[in-house]
């Protein structure tokens, strides 16, 4: 999901990054500036590592091997080779390229940890990572390789390899080239890693956290859009807005539910179509669950997102490495690289995404069924029998929902031991993040189908007119998609509305129109 470039500078090292900072750098090319105070802390922590490097007693990550080889002492003259070998061997990802925004996010988040002064790297390492981001150099990272424990090792190793001037990258224009060529073009000297630095560059939850933050940004837009698409369905299917009343919501004080119900009230306010059947002549007692319970489902997803945002905020404030340099000068092994906290909420969000898509598809299906749509033509077809209308659009939504249910199966309950049983329980958080990205894309498309359906259904209710908010949304949709008529090539319509969903244009239009009322 992309946004227009903006001019902005993100300061790293003075305070924890915000989610907005991560999105700005990952998607919009915001510039990085390193706080001077952070570089001072980095230099001070490096001095401690340099002292320990001369100690004849072994210190993990400084004068020993790694993982199951942690007991092997490495002599001084072999340690630069040790660090370079670590990165080369761990840059073993395979599969498709990971998206540029994900790579930039994980690189920024690793930079943030490096800038805390708890990892023992030299200031030049911090400065090199910032320079690569500012130059738009994006290391090529592969889909598979991380188990979400001991950090996102393979993805982060591909980034570190590029900083060493090895491997492949894409430049700011997206052209693939050797890392050495890209660094030279940007006047960035390749890193020669010293004690502790290779380990510090790969020991973090940065990949899964970056994908979580991007997902939370996108899901905020999608849940507003889901409230809007539900409003289109309620209105066009002659449903009632009475069930969304504020006093009814207070009887069950769920925060997300109240927010979604407030959106539905605002989106349906002053609708002649809703008012047309509000009297006692309407014999229906209540609407189907998919209409009536929209705030309950969407609201539960909002609450899930709020919990995930809490976990993400805590992780943004973390300095994840192993070993870590403490404020009082100790070098301590720890388990903070384990991705369980992030992995769990990634899986939790995938469940919520699947359910929001599921209820959306059910609303779409009702609009296409003359037995349940209260007077709309079958499949909203122009000439029933000759035309199929939106029949297969619902098939597409149903196929996506089925896949989202599969993607909702948690990754974090799995674990495959690695590193000769030293790393015998892993989080699979990277896999949880990858499937959540696919799930969010699917939800965007399911909501787009409901919006296409709802807008066509509004047209077919003429001379009844929709309310001001849904009218504004329909007008936006009609700039991309024609109204009812004989069957036409439908895929471009769905893709065009999906773009409006992803960009947030639909949600912004609805919220702006609701604010005016």
Structure notes:
The protein is mostly helical and 517 residues long. It has two domains: 9-204, Orthogonal Bundle (Fumarase C, Chain B, domain 1), CATH 1.10.275.10; 212-276 and 286-516, Fumarase/aspartase (Central domain) (Fumarase C, Chain A, domain 2, Up-down Bundle). It contains 20 helices and nine strands. The strands form four sheets. Strands 4-6-7 form a three-stranded antiparallel sheet. The radius of gyration is 26 Å and the shape is elongated.
Give the radius of gyration: 26 Å
Q: Assign the CATH class of the largest domain.
A: Mainly Alpha
- SSE succession: EHEHHEHHEEHEEHHHHHHHHEEHHHHHH
In the CATH hierarchy, the third-tier topology of the largest domain is known as Fumarase C, Chain A, domain 2
pLDDT averaged over residues? 93
> What is the overall number of helices?
20
Q: Shape, please? A: elongated
Structural class: mainly alpha
The CATH homologous superfamily of the largest domain is named Fumarase/aspartase (Central domain)
Helical fraction: 55-70%
Give the total of domains.
2
- Beta-strand content bin: 5-15%
Protein name: Histidine ammonia-lyase
Keywords: Histidine metabolism, Lyase
Enzyme class: lyase
InterPro entries: Aromatic_Lyase, Fumarase/histidase_N, HutH, L-Aspartase-like, Phe/His_NH3-lyase_AS
